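Reviewers of the previous submission asked for a worked example of the structure-prediction workflow described in the proposal, so we include one complete record here. The input consisted solely of the amino acid sequence. No template or homolog information was supplied to the procedure at any stage.
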Amino acid sequence: ELCRLPGCDRCAANPNEPVTVHTSCFHAIRKYPYLDGRSIWEACTWRSPWRDAPDLNLGVTPPQSLDEDTLKAAGLEVLNGLPKEVLDMVYCYSSSSEFWRLCTSRAFARRSGQMVDEERVMSLADVVSWDRQEGLQRWCGGQGELLRIEIDSMGVKSIESLQGYPEPCPRRFDSTAYVVLTRDEADQVIAHFKTQRSLDTVEKQGVKTETQYQRARLRKGQARLQIWDKPVPPLAGSCAWSDDVSRYPHLRTINLDEAFGLTFIFRSGLLHSIHGHTAAKPTIAEPMESDDCVHVPLGGPGNRIAAVAIHEPIRDIGSQFHGRTMIVSFN
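From that input alone, the workflow returned the following structure tokens.
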């Protein structure tokens, strides 16, 4: 009975947290006897960095290894002998197919084994570092005034301490997101950590040992965690906003140094998205028939974008007329 829509008061007040799973993925996961309904629910909820986190739409990377049963069932055993570079190209052109979903879900199930120890709960401010391979290092003073949280499609990927704010960098990512906060801000956030036993094994000196998979999740309470698509977000004073930036929990950026054009996509008269055309992503996804697209080429000597302004159409709301213009400028 939970809709899972952003901002739904009914869902927020309900102690249960819904998750959405493809039917085919659910049946593939249930083939592992140690995963009952609650285990699947718990493993899926931990893929979200915190409850009510926005849908970050982070790309899933190709599986590091292919499941032989899935290959055999699909008649694609030939993929098992391909070099990783070629396999990545095959994945790039067919990433939405059910075959890759099944590979990903089975790899997910193998990592979501039984818990090795009790769940550890502490203030995020008490963490020096954490990642899925090395686990947790606790705070003992002097390890950095800032914390950076890295998030991928599996949830919280790593937590690291920063001595000071790094130099701004234009680099951005589609498959990872980042939160940078101070120790005082982190003191408002509760961190949960646990270790799970994986079915995967690692061979060292001829001896196979089982691997352990670290998981982390946050309980942010009233804290505001601003999510960016770059590990070094711009400082607050480097951007001038005409709108309240806190309304947008996940901010995406476009590296204008790499872009040779911008396409503004309008849906129902309102700005829906902006695509930066780069060598890596020269074209946009197929727009809906009702979308209106405006393309602005970039480049040329002396050309520089000083500001971008979007004026949305005036709408009649009750007895008042409302329009909005959002301007972002860069120093």
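Helices lie at 9-13, 23-29, 37-45, 68-74, 84-94, 98-111, 183-186. We consider this example representative of the routine output the project will generate in years two and three.
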